What does this fold into?
Amino acid sequence: MTIRAALPRLLTTLAPYQAAVVRIGTAGTWGAFLLREWPNRRVLYGDRSPWSAELNARLIGDTHAFTALAWSDGRWWFEAVYLLALLAAAATALGWRTRASSVLFALTVLSLQNRNVFVGDGGDNLVHLMAIYLVFTRCGTVWSLDARRRARRPGKDPAEWGEPRAVADALAAMLHNCAMLVIAGQVVLVYGTAGWYKVQGARWQDGTAVHYPLHLDYFTPWPELSGLLAGSLLLTFLFTYGTVVLQVGFPFSLAARRLKNALLVVMAAEHLGIAVLLGLPFFSLAMLSADAVFVPTAALLAVQRAVTAAAGRVRRAGPAERAEPTGPAGPAGPAEQV
It folds into this structure.
């Protein structure tokens, strides 16, 4: 079979909508985090950080991790990298020049996070990994400014490409498919390991694990609500065991599509609860963004149709309101009412 004959099969890009959601969610989460921490940026990653540039240089020497902030410890270099990180997150979320912006996004994520590895949580670790994986995907195929530009100025039909271009595009498609498989495997690994480690914990075994963070000031943005939930032994028991069952069971649910979809809905509700009750919105957003790799394409297309229909109604309503005649008596003036 020649390359040209096998082209349609080789060029198939799997899960383009899921890749777009992972891209938008991951970049949007990181960009929102950087904006929120703008007043604290120098303490977290810059020249005022308790974890000094000298200490970080020693750590980098042992771990060989990448950070552009190791090139200079000056304030203005840090400010430039931080601003570049914000711009890269915005460009990636919007899908503008996605191939280049996703690379820049990954480099800036690594640069900031590896400058101070002691201020992150599980959500930051997931953003770290997803930023790397997205570089190898075609995450701008849909729901992006790139897709909008291609729709306005379509290029050559793939069947008309030369042999080298066809081979390169086929390799890119296969790389994308492998990267999406790795993202799915990463999500399964996160839930599987988290669940099985919880099974071994005494507080998770006796059903009281959820009770303790609800009493910590750091994790109680709504003390009254947290106190109400923590005061119910039945609720804390159900939340504790429910979390373990969800995390341990999710990898096995992939064999049953309906069960997997049901667990995705429950896990989304759980992450929203964590965001509100424990004050961890960016952790929850990072997890929801990664979970999107398992959302059915039909559900994402339904969302697209709903958004498109809503946007169409808004566009149609605008000209109608501007064209509506007005007068002293309301929509129709006295002359029209005679």
Summary: Residues 163-199 form the longest helix (37 residues). Residues 13-146+164-305 form one domain. Confidence is low (pLDDT under 50) at residues 327-338. The chain has one domain: 13-146+164-305.
